[in-house]
Design goal:
Strand content: 5-15%
Number of helices: 15
Largest sheet: 8 strands, mixed
Strand order of the largest sheet: 2-9-8-7-6-3-4-5
Structural class: alpha/beta
CATH superfamily of the largest domain: Type I PLP-dependent aspartate aminotransferase-like (Major domain)
Shape: globular
CATH class of the largest domain: Alpha Beta
Distance between the termini: 71 Å
């Protein structure tokens, strides 16, 4: 007869999910699932009719030719499973892209993998290449999926805070984070949520550290084409010594404003790509077939189209930044990405979470506190900062800018 002890309550037999939820702060004091601040802010936006600048996706679709190719692919019957590594032409387009923009020679057959968004590329990479006892270095604040994925892999996250208000990378502090257990340094460059761009000199130091500690470099470059003013993006694989130990991840969603398509990719040395594909095949196996020819078309757009995309987003950034400054925030123009960060202290709020909760009623705008992207031990560094998304139509951003001025009242 089975003992009572063998019949543990269901919730006690499902601990792995709790481990992941706890890592990203999704358990309340009773150990039950808690809503994220993203869900809380979205609900507030709906309840108050606020302009939602908390969600990091565009409110308009991308280049018409890219959309048309997807429609045609569906009409032509490209609706069944694509090959696991991705359609050959998309893999070729990714390789062409890496050569065109970065001068990198990539073999489309053995060094490119098409994934279901950048997040799956990161998930498959961490699950394939890290495990218990390994350490993964990330920059803080960080995209929340990184923390969850590292926890899923059973590895330990080691956080290196970017220093506000400029969110620079302290290279000495980064060096101190490396150890004999470091398996991966996971970079997001250009950086979400701060909009920072890590320059070539810092990247060179990162590669030197990775070589010294025999660590892999995984770099999330989804904002690679959304870089503004005088900032320049350097892909990590361009740095001498990086190509043999780096996995470079990107996607179509941010560049072409098709985040719902979930078409991503990675480039890596053949042995690393094969390891990641071995895991990827048991996650989604394959990725949306009719969108792959469309993304290949997007990757081959002329430079003038890329410049138009960049300039359009930079214009949106300028509208929002102007509104934030006029409202009394302390803010600098973001160097890249979809996001800008603003300090609410001049408005009398040294706690951005409190400010985020009152803004919908006071001015009708929603943003996300930067502490949502940080571990508790680093939260105080980012306490007064909010993240605003400017990947919206000009009219929406102008409306938000005008609403924000009510905070001065």
């Amino acid at each position: 007869m089975t003992s009572h002890e063998d019949c543990a309550p269901h919730e006690e037999r499902t601990q792995p999910w709790r481990h992941v939820a706890a890592a990203v702060g999704l358990l309340n004091d009773k150990g039950q699932p808690a809503p994220t601040v993203f869900a809380e802010m979205t609900n507030l936006a709906i309840e108050t009719g606020s302009v939602n600048l908390g969600q990091g996706f565009p409110d308009a679709s991308g280049p018409q030719i890219v959309l048309d190719v997807a429609r045609q692919a569906i009409a032509d019957g490209v609706n069944q499973y694509a090959p696991g590594p991705g359609l050959a032409d998309l893999r070729l387009a990714v390789a062409e892209h890496q050569q065109r923009f970065y001068g990198l020679d990539v073999d489309p057959d053995s060094e490119v993998l098409i994934t279901t968004g950048a997040t799956e590329a990161l998930a498959a990479t961490l699950l394939a290449l890290t495990g218990p006892g390994d350490e993964v270095i990330t920059l803080e604040p960080c995209y929340d999926a990184y923390t969850a994925l590292i926890a899923m892999a059973g590895a330990r996250q080691v956080r290196v805070p970017l220093t506000p208000p400029t969110f620079d990378l302290d290279l000495d502090r980064l060096e101190q984070a490396f150890s004999e257990r470091t398996r991966v340094i996971l970079l997001n460059n250009p950086h979400n949520p701060t909009g920072t761009v890590i320059g070539r000199a810092a990247l060179t130091r990162i590669v030197e550290l990775a070589e010294r500690f025999d660590a892999l470099i995984v770099t999330d470059e989804v904002y690679e084409h959304l870089v503004f003013d005088d900032a320049r993006h350097t892909s990590i694989a361009q740095i001498p010594g990086a190509s043999d130990r780096s996995i470079t991840v990107s996607s179509a969603g941010k560049t072409f404003s098709v985040t719902g398509w979930k078409i991503g990719w990675l480039t890596a040395p053949a042995h690393l790509r094969q390891a990641v594909q071995t895991v990827k095949q048991f996650l989604t196996f394959t990725t949306g077939a009719p969108f792959q020819p469309a993304v290949a078309t997007g990757l081959r757009l002329p430079n003038s189209d890329y410049e138009q995309i960049r300039c359009g987003l930079q214009h949106g950034r300028d509208i929002l930044h102007g509104g934030l400054v006029a409202a009394g925030f302390d803010s600098s123009p973001a160097a890249a990405s979809y996001f800008c960060v603003a300090d609410g202290s001049p408005l009398g709020f040294d706690d951005a979470t409190e400010l985020a909760r009152v803004m919908p009623e006071r001015c009708g705008v929603v943003a996300i506190p930067l502490t949502a992207f940080a571990a508790p031990e680093n939260a105080e560094l980012y306490r007064p900062y909010l993240r605003f998304a400017f990947s919206k139509r000009d009219a929406v951003l102008q409306d938000a800018a005008e609403r924000l001025e009510r905070l001065r009242g």
